[in-house]
Amino acid sequence: MGSADSKLNFRKAVIQLTTKTQPVEATDDAFWDQFWADTATSVQDVFALVPAAEIRAVREESPSNLATLCYKAVEKLVQGAESGCHSEKEKQIVLNCSRLLTRVLPYIFEDPDWRGFFWSTVPGAGRGGQGEDDDENARPLAESLLLAIADLLFCPDFTVQSHRRSTVDSAEDVHSLDSCEYIWEAGVGFAHSPQPNYIHDVNRMELLKLLLTCFSEAMYLPPAPDSGSTNPWVQFFCSTENRHALPLFTSLLNTVCAYDPVGYGIPYNHLLFSDYREPLVEEAAQVLIVTLDHDSATSASPTVDGTTTGTAMDDADPPGPENLFVNYLSRIHREEDFQFILKGIARLLSNPLLQTYLPNSTKKIQFHQELLVLFWKLCDFNKKFLFFVLKSSDVLDILVPTLYFLNDARADQSRVGLMHIGVFILLLLSGERNFGVRLNKPYSVRVPMDIPVFTGTHADLLIVVFHKIITSGHQRLQPLFDCLLTIVVNVSPYLKSLSMVAANKLLHLLEAFSTTWFLFSAAQNHHLVFFLLEAFNNIIQYQFDGNSNLVYAIIRKRSVFHQLANLPTDPPAIHKALQRRRRTAEPLSRTGSQEGASMEGSRPAAPAEPGTLKTSLVATPGIDKLTEKSQVSEDGTLRSLEPTSQQSSADGSPTAEEPGQAWREQRRLSSASASGQWSPTSEWVLSWKSKLPLQTIMRLLQVLVPQVEKICIDKGLTDESEILRFLQHGTLVGLLPVPHPILIRKYQANSGTAMWFRTYMWGVIYLRNVDPPVWYDTDVKLFEIQRV
User: Fold this and answer.
1) How far is residue 87's CA from residue 95's CA, in Å, rounded to a whole number?
2) Annotated region Disordered: where (predicted)?
């Protein structure tokens, strides 16, 4: 039968379904088979031939027909999984049912009255498969569907290579098949790389799309503050009930990490061959991050059966959470597995950067946001992986693309979520000493980026990009300023030598943040000054020798520090500063920062195109909720300072969070300040002004300024290289206050960020699935869809 005929028949069946007012019996196979038996329709056809309005009409007017349709489609998938799909006809039926369910499920999820439908039991669908009346053991429809999908993903000659020697052999028995021998790709825990097979990839992709659609019930629930709500679909699929959990986890992870979009190393190869692997890799990445959506902050760790194949997983650790995917991820421990994962993610994240060297030479992948979430999950759930990443300069292969994305997306309000995940990853890494140490490696890769040209280290790159984000990013990024500067503070004690460009950028930020009208215009703005002073103090106390550029920049801008020390606190002065605010434009202008020419070949960061769709995000917790303060001891170990949050650091200067009201208040107050409800008082200014950690810098200026001035007068110098040479050989040993202990603010898991990740991840998945548009125009509740 031609495909036009089959579309016509399929459409006829859909119309019959929507116009029948009487329930159609489940036993009426002649009617139901029209939907899957005699048709060859693509998933795009199914979406076109089953309009949203008709699905909703059936749901409202003949609910029993919709229920039967779902039940029968699941039954067909279960039968396909049982039989092993040997004939072409069976394979076609499975794919048709899979497409139909992908189309219909979102409309079941959007109606609260239907939400329990898949979790109700269906008479006759016993857990053992036998016995019509064995209702005690009946499985909910959702469980039958999920187990069938899992079986079908390891179905020889359908989604995996058959291991049969010849056609004479009897078919492999689906029930005794050990799916660990059929893992899709070599990598973690599996050495054999199967022959690529286009048909298998396409079939896997269709089933993974259905699986993702099952998991997407989460999109139809509003963001809950407790966020402890586990997704029942994910919970069941990742439990011991799914005998394929380990091989499927491994298949997904390996498929993503082994993918090389360059077309097997040959430039321009992708123009000759269409890459059928990419859609599978993308789908695999999305399924993987959804299965790993697990709130590590609130979860207890129940016991699970710790048996795994091979030695890829670390059995020494106590059993992890019930979610086996999270459990397996947290127990990977072999160096070669870590290397494989890290190299794979770094290769894919760097892919858009390669584009800029040889335009169109490689295929440009689009799923970097999913990769960043995956990398985040790996570091968050597997501390051994985090330490491995930081052990060598390989971490820079993650840092550079992350900074590239941050710089590129900074002006685009539809990519605020990408900005957050990038900054969160750097915050997590910056809590480890090794990250700061690695940043000293010279930066020689010349990725065209819209930033001033500089010669220096990866630390310079980080500071220059952060300066760009703060001074010319979208205004919705302001909540991230605390995070950006916390990262700078965390790495500052380890930075051996800042370039002149980076040193000037840091002082420009201090200058901008310490103007009176900026300090007085919101309740927490002064924290930014505390962070910068803390970073300067760390560098002066611990890395004075190599940092003559920064010392010189501080001397040149010494008036900024004197102004801070003499900040006015009387009401008329405060009032006057705020008056000035109403006259001036945006808080951070580029003036005062010499913007050098941008790198060759770079394009300026562009704002979102009008009409771009974006999804809303929940607010992120304040920096005090996001991080936990630790002190670095003499031997380099960290000691948490959390229980006594009021204690000041050794030299009497408080930590940046102490001044001012509690952060929760401030989040509220800062939004209130726009409407003029919050106003600064003298007491408030005094409360934090007295704690500004200026002692170290004032002492430095006191010692060095007269010496520098003397050189200038004596030699009639205006040449800075001479002064820099003097500063390079200068020393402040014994002249500075006793070094303060280093304070590190480490990221800590909390339910606020878990909820943020959930909304961000599903927002990305919603927007990225446009062909077919699985969730488009359905009533999602987790976020709002907005047009720029």
Assistant:
1) 13
2) 572-677
pTM for this model (two decimals): 0.88
Radius of gyration of the chain (CA): 30
Q: For 438-463, give the DSSP string.
A: HTTSB-------SSB---SBHHHHHH
The CA distances from residue 581 to 500, 515, 586, 648, 675, in Å, are: 31, 10, 9, 33, 14
Euclidean distance between CA atoms 669 and 683, whole angstroms: 17
Answer whether residue 115 shows pLDDT above 90. Answer: no
Q: Measured between alpha carbons, how far is 498 from 641 in angstroms, rounded to an integer?
A: 29
DSSP string, 357-386: TSTTSS-----HHHHHHHHHHHHHH-HHHH
Q: Closest Cα partner for 493 from 527, 442, 551, 544?
A: 544
Contact 408, 360 (CB under 8 A): no
Angle between helices 695-715 and 548-556 (to 10 degrees): 90
How far is residue 344's CA from residue 330's CA, in Å, rounded to a whole number? 18
8 A C-beta contact, residue 531 and residue 485: yes
The closest alpha carbon to 207, from 373, 89, 77, belongs to: 77
Rounded to whole angstroms, how far apart are CA atoms 533 and 530? Answer: 5
SS3 label, residue 390: helix
Percent of the chain clearing pLDDT 70 (strictly above): 82
Note the pLDDT of residue 198. Answer: 86
Q: How far is CA 723 from the centre of its chain?
A: 45
CB 687 within 8 A of CB 519: no
In this structure, which amino acid lies at residue 477? L
Spell out the alpha helix ranges (H) of 258-334. 277-291, 324-331
**Residue 26 and residue 37: Cα distance in Å, rounded?**
15
- Give SS3 for 640: strand
Of the candidates 372, 230, 369, which has an alpha carbon nearest to the alpha carbon of residue 294?
230
Q: What is the pLDDT of residue 226?
A: 60
Greater model confidence, 122 or 569: 569
Return d(Cα 24, Cα 27) in angstroms, integer: 8
What are the Cα distances from residue 145, in Å, to 225, 236, 382? 30, 11, 31
Name the strand (E) or helix (H) holding 758: helix 751-768
Phi, psi of 628 (to 5 degrees): -130, 135
Residue (of 582, 581, 506, 509) closest to 540 by Cα position: 506
Query: Which residue shows structure tokens 């939004």?
Result: 671
Per-residue pLDDT at 352 exceeds 90:
no
First to last CA, the chain: 46
